[in-house]
């Protein structure tokens, strides 16, 4: 009897341990299944950029619109074209009346127009997305605009970031069903949990781009951009030509020469510290001058094509068009000798000529470009040889990324609106400087500014309250410190003299984003020899692949605006003087000349296009 009681206790304790283990395993299993789904729903419903428009019910569609919140830095993309008034609402009017360094828009409230499609239109759009790169014939024999599967629109950057930045969006797909691109806007469409796509080929594959964009960080530093450029050159290449041409050997040779470039005699007009790799820039520029040939298509009717606009804030595309079409060194009349093919349309002229006031649609603009592209495809064989990879255009209007992202997605796109969140592709696209030219007869009028010793103002900004960053800037710094000259719109003055004198007399010129990431203030600051302070998360600065922007400018994250003065005051005087001197040295790369000069803005744009083509090219085996 003395041994029975301990034996019974031993058996009971073992059963108790087994029971506790089973219960613990059950709880852990339940949490593994249920917790990720719950956390995903919480993260979506609490996101500051999403506002639910109603409750979803089983089997029904629930539409949501992305609502910008000016108090936070957006980290979920909404691709809105800002369509509205007769001049294109939300865009900056291109007349020559400028106040406070900004353009007056005829509709200040047309910034966000994110259209939602009814279910029948959504299903029709899904049908179009099923066959990428093809023009489908409808039942009555008419053709529908070309559509490309959204998952095919991912850039190398987005693919890399989606791997490196895992978010709750990557763990679930049922609640976040389809992101459709429709006439220049991206709307987010929700389905009930567990709902399946009725159309084959869309499903979860169509979600990938939306999830990658959501995972893209709101802030991408300049050093990161250069890193992604190098990754792109190593891992991403354009379409292999369907047949070889003699010019292909030129591209292969140029790449080999640039990669092993040896130091050359220092050009007295260049200053090495402002470049990422001074030696390679010298060599690639030299090869461009000796080798590059561009063919310009003669097709296209005015005023959209072959009609350069030389004044206003969209002047970059017009000046480049004018100077290239009159150039004898780079332009060839024999298409078989061309390394690059230029599509000579003006994105601003496209909007002015074809946009229907209050239509809230860019469909006819896209269709016009598509008809032009199809005409090129029919007459010439060169687009089909590379899928358009050796073709390029130069476009400064805000809507250009949306108008061209499908029908010209393989082209080298020189864009003023160079936003990593809106499809800018490192290694393929280039960031086009947005330049304000008040008078085309003298684009260098008022060039320069006060010497550093006579610049008494710490920081200056004046402009209209476009977007969410500028009101935030004024909230914190307008009339707060005597050395911070932060204004809204300045009173009009002849020749905009008040604005210009502030620029010429300030140490730092604040360049906050407006509706889009780009601003003409960046180039203006350099023009007036003022150190630019760029406040625009996700903005890719011009010629970032060549110029070391951190050597002559300051980048401030949007969320750090409350600390702006402290950031600027923390910069040592010697550092500021060095940066200001470098601004004067880099200035030559941002100037238009009626007769192009070596290393000027015309040549720098052409060089970036040439360089991207050289490093993206893959020869036919």
Straight-line distance between termini: 91 Å
Total number of beta strands: 16
Report Rg.
27 Å
| Secondary structural class | alpha/beta
Average pLDDT number: 75
Provide the β-strand percentage band: 5-15%
Please tell me about this protein's structure:
- By secondary structure, the chain is of the alpha/beta class.
- Helix content is 35%, strand content 10%.
- The chain has 18 helices and 16 strands.
- The strands form four sheets. The protein has a five-stranded parallel beta sheet. Strands 13-12-14-15-16 form a five-stranded parallel beta sheet, sandwiched between helices. It has a four-stranded antiparallel beta sheet with strand order 1-2-6-5, covered by helices on one side.
- The radius of gyration is 27 Å and the shape is globular.
Write the layout of secondary structure elements.
Elements: H1 4-45, E1 50-52, E2 62-66, E3 98-99, E4 102-103, H2 119-129, H3 156-164, E5 178-182, E6 185-190, H4 208-215, H5 222-235, H6 246-259, H7 278-291, E7 294-296, H8 315-325, E8 340-342, H9 347-354, H10 363-379, H11 382-386, E9 391-395, H12 400-404, E10 412-415, E11 430-431, E12 457-461, H13 469-477, E13 484-486, H14 497-505, E14 506-512, H15 521-527, E15 531-535, E16 554-555, H16 564-569, H17 573-586, H18 601-616
Parallel strand pairs: 7-8, 8-9, 9-10, 10-11, 12-13, 12-14, 14-15, 15-16
Antiparallel strand pairs: 1-2, 2-6, 3-4, 5-6
Helix pairs in contact: 3-4, 6-7
């Amino acid at each position: 009897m003395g041994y029975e009681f301990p034996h019974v206790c031993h058996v009971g304790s073992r059963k108790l341990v087994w029971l506790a283990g089973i219960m613990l395993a059950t709880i852990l299993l339940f949490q593994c299944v249920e917790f990720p789904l719950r956390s995903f729903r919480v993260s979506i419903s609490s996101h500051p950029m999403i506002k639910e428009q109603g409750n979803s019910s089983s089997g029904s569609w629930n539409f949501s619109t992305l609502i910008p919140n000016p108090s936070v830095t957006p980290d979920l993309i909404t691709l809105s074209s800002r369509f509205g008034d007769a001049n294109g609402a939300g865009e900056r009017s291109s007349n020559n009346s400028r106040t406070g360094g900004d353009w007056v828009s005829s509709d200040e409230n047309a910034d966000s127009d994110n259209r939602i499609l009814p279910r029948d239109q959504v299903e029709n759009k899904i049908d179009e997305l099923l066959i990428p790169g093809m023009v489908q014939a409808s039942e009555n024999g008419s053709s529908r605009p070309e559509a490309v599967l959204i998952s095919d629109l991912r850039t190398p950057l987005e693919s890399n970031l989606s791997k490196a930045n895992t978010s709750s969006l990557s763990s679930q797909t049922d609640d976040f069903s389809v992101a459709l691109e429709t006439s220049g806007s991206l709307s987010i469409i929700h389905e009930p949990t567990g709902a399946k796509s009725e159309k084959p080929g869309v499903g979860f594959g169509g979600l990938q781009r939306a999830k990658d964009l959501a995972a893209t960080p709101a802030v991408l530093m300049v050093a990161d951009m250069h890193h992604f450029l190098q990754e792109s050159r190593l891992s991403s290449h354009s379409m292999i030509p369907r047949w070889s041409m003699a010019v292909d050997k030129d591209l292969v040779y140029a790449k080999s020469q640039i990669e092993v470039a040896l130091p050359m005699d220092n050009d007295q007009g260049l200053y090495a510290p402002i470049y990422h790799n001074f030696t390679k820039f010298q060599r690639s520029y030299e090869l461009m001058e000796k080798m590059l040939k561009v063919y310009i298509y003669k097709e296209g009717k005015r005023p959209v094509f072959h009609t350069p606009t030389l004044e206003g804030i969209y002047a970059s595309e017009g000046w480049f068009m004018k100077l290239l079409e009159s150039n004898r060194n780079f332009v060839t009349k024999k298409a078989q000798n061309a390394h690059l093919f230029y599509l000579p349309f003006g994105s601003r002229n496209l909007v002015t000529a074809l946009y229907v006031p209050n239509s809230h649609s860019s469909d006819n603009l896209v269709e016009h470009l598509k008809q032009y592209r199809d005409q090129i495809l029919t007459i010439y064989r060169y687009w089909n040889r590379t899928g358009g990879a050796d073709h390029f255009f130069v476009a400064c209007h805000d809507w250009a990324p949306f108008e061209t992202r499908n029908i010209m997605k393989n082209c080298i796109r020189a864009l003023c609106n160079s936003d990593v969140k809106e499809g800018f592709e490192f290694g393929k696209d280039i960031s086009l400087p947005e330049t304000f030219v008040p008078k085309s007869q003298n684009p260098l009028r008022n060039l320069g500014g006060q010497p550093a010793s006579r610049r008494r103002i710490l920081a200056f900004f004046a402009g209209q309250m476009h977007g969410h960053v500028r009101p935030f800037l004024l909230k914190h710094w307008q009339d707060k410190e005597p050395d911070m000259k932060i204004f809204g719109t300045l009173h009009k003055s002849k020749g905009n003299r008040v604005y210009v004198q502030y620029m010429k007399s300030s140490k730092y010129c604040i360049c906050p984003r407006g509706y889009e990431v780009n601003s003409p203030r960046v180039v203006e600051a350099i023009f007036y020899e003022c150190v630019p302070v760029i406040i625009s998360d996700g903005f890719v600065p011009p010629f970032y692949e060549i110029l070391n922007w951190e050597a002559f400018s300051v980048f401030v994250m949007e969320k750090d605006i409350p600390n702006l003065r402290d950031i600027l005051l923390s910069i040592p005087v010697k550092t500021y003087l060095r940066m200001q001197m470098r601004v004067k040295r880099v200035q030559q790369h941002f100037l238009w000349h009626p007769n192009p000069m070596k290393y000027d803005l015309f040549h720098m744009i052409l060089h970036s296009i040439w360089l991207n083509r050289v490093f993206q090219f893959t020869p036919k085996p």
